[in-house]
Amino acid sequence: MIILLRILLLAIHLVSAWLIMQTIAYLIEIPRKWWQQLLLFAGCYVLDVTVIFIEDPINILAVTPVFLIIVLFLCRGSFWQKITIGLLFSSTIFSFNALRDNYIPGLLPAALQQVDHGFPFSRLFSLPFALALYLSTRKFAPDKDYTLSDSMWRLLLLLTITPLGIVLDVVTLFHPSDGHLMIQSHREYAILLLISLLAFISLLWCITVLARQQKLEQQNIFTEINRKYYEAMEQQHFEVRRLKHDLANHIQVLSALPEDKRKSYARELANNAAFSQPFAYCGDATVNAVLTVKKSVMERCRIHMETDIEIPHQLPYDKTDICALYANALDNAMEACMKLDETQRIISLKSKAGRGVFCLEITNPVQDAQIYLQKTSESLFAFPTSKPDKTNHGFGLKSIQEIVKRYQGHMEIKTNNGIFDLFLYLPLSNI
Q1: What is the mean pLDDT of each run of 10 residues along the chain (431 residues)?
Q2: How many helices (H) and strands (E) does the chain have?
Q3: By three-state DSSP, how is residue 130 classified?
Q4: Are residues 297 and 165 in the same domain?
Q5: How far apart are CA 210 and CA 205, in angstroms?
Q6: Cross-sheet strand order for the sheet of 357-365
Q7: Read out DSSP for 9-41?
Q8: Which residue range(s) make up the domain with 124?
Q9: I need a surface site. Which of 89, 231, 297, 413 has the fewest CB within 10 A?
């Protein structure tokens, strides 16, 4: 009977360790290689099975740094994120283990307490705790691509020190004179451990709250950038229309100018994109404005743009979002083309709207050295900007990703034979 119970206990600890590892995966990216996942699983298993007796500080002081080292070397993220997540989870599990190993046995029925000397029934509670931690984290977890600044992680780490200090004080500084019964008589230690456990869980919840807040702030930043981009684009488009409207005035000026100034004035007008660019690419005015302005920039940069656009009507999206999708994608394509010979500077743009879907695809040649692919957990790609001012640049693809997510669309990025391909689609029916 004891053997069967111990097999059951082993299975419970294995399942609990798996749940702990999956819970960690919601807050930090875990390794993908099987042997690394196995090592992380072993660290979670050690956390779950570690016995924390209040009079014995050796286990908690020995296992905590080992688990932190495993998280630091295996998980992906900044140093402060890894050290904070590792310390939070180890402290949370150890707080529960201290309650489990010191106080739960006293709450069991008398019959189980007698058997408990040969079999630790209290450790069966590890599975419900791990399951509750997993389910609550899965329900309230932030997006997998969430980011917090290092200052935020340092703040969370600082807040973790106080409840961790309480746990360490209770476990390491208590010296009983009457053994385990003496420990159970000190209910204030159980209260301190419970408060610490709730504090750790609250800090895990804080990660979700901070991640959502930062996401909202990031969306606001993208919205403001896109709004300013759209206003600048509208202004440029207005200037183009104004110049065309004032064509008669320019002719009158030309006729009144002396011969030596007339040629330079005519040359200046001839080079103005307003007198050479078409307006009607499609049925959406915002798309027309963006493409008109970008086409004039491409001509100055010796970039050829091929277009295949079938958008018969106005798109049902916010104008700043439409501007951001086309402008950011074309800006990235132009930036890549400027690093190539003029004969290779070709951008292909295809866009259609129909049958409930809006699609946009932009392809352009790239240099092998300028592409740095880093696959994220949601199969999107992050491309660092090649501009010197990385603080104020590099929002292009992030802004496009944010818009695609907001409209419940899909985005794919790939390279093949030196050709960069950006494809995205947004539903028309959900707007």
Answers
A1: 82 95 94 93 95 86 94 93 94 93 78 57 90 93 85 93 89 60 66 91 91 80 69 65 63 69 70 56 87 85 93 90 89 91 93 92 79 38 40 62 90 89 88 54
A2: 15, 5
A3: helix
A4: no
A5: 9
A6: 304-310, 346-354, 357-365, 419-427, 410-416
A7: HHHHHHHHHHHHHHHHHTTSBPP-SHHHHHHHH
A8: 2-220
A9: 231
